[in-house]
Amino acid sequence: MDRNFAMEFVRVSEAAALAAARFMGRGDENAADHAAVEAMRRAFDSIHFSGTVKIGEGERDEAPMLYIGEKVGSRREGAPVLDLAIDPLEGTTITSKGGANALSVIAVAEEGKFLHAPDTYMSKIAVGPDARDAISLDLGPAENLHNIARAKKCDVSDLTVVILDRPRHDDIIREVRKAGARIWMISDGDVQAALATAMPGSGVDVLMGIGGAPEGVIAAAALRCMGGNFQGRLIFRTELEKSRAHEMGIRDLNKTYKIEELAAGRVMFCATGVTDGSMLRGVKFFGGGAKTHSVVMRSETGTIRFIEAHHDFRRKPNII
Ligand code: FBP
Fold it and tell me: What pTM, to 2 d.p., does this model score?
């Protein structure tokens, strides 16, 4: 994958974040999401590539734009063929309330390298490079925490675990507390939490619990670039979800997916903050422009590049 693509795709996540950020705190999740989707859809077509959305806004009959299977990009002859896992606005509720950790995210891989994940839940565990060999979804929280603490040469009581604040996590929370680790409960946005596990100084060591499966694939792509680790197991709530997964080619419904099975080959990841978060700052508007904060990385080199961009709307009217 050409490294120049990295800058091209950051422009796309910036456009989506700028559009969504206008709706921060305005109590309208759908409007924020719609703005991000439209801006991202438009920006993709200015890039010389043949893209297919593999993880997107939903099935074709449910999502008008950026649905699974949609073709994007200039699609001119000879254009590189790439698959996309996107979330134009990860954290719709967060954005509508002006909370922390909302992002616009794009992961890119060569054709056929993302797990074709259905829109179900996923049980997840994510860590940074120093604990990459210490996790297993087949073990309980306490055992994982002891192994992670050993790998990080610290005590379990030094670890901070991020968990989505949901009643379904009562058991995990109880076990993590019993093991002695600290917990940071978040209202939404487990992609940024997964990234934070691999960012030195973020204060986050582990992500545990159940969140969206599409977000799991996106987080796995990011952690491939950052040298961290991620494991996921699909969680089905209904028979319909199971049969949909079957139609999408998933045979073993209880499989634990390793990071390379979620996002294989050479991958690229970029994200732009919509609201302030543990890794990225949110969009700041000023008269005639705005400032964005993004991260871009590729699995080939592992370089994590932060980009602060100052946008002059008078000279770039199309960006908004
Ligand atoms: P949205 O951007 O679609 O609102 O998703 C936010 C999110 O918190 C994800 O980060 C997370 O994986 C998922 O929702 C959890 O789902 P639920 O809110 O149903 O528990």
Answer: 0.95
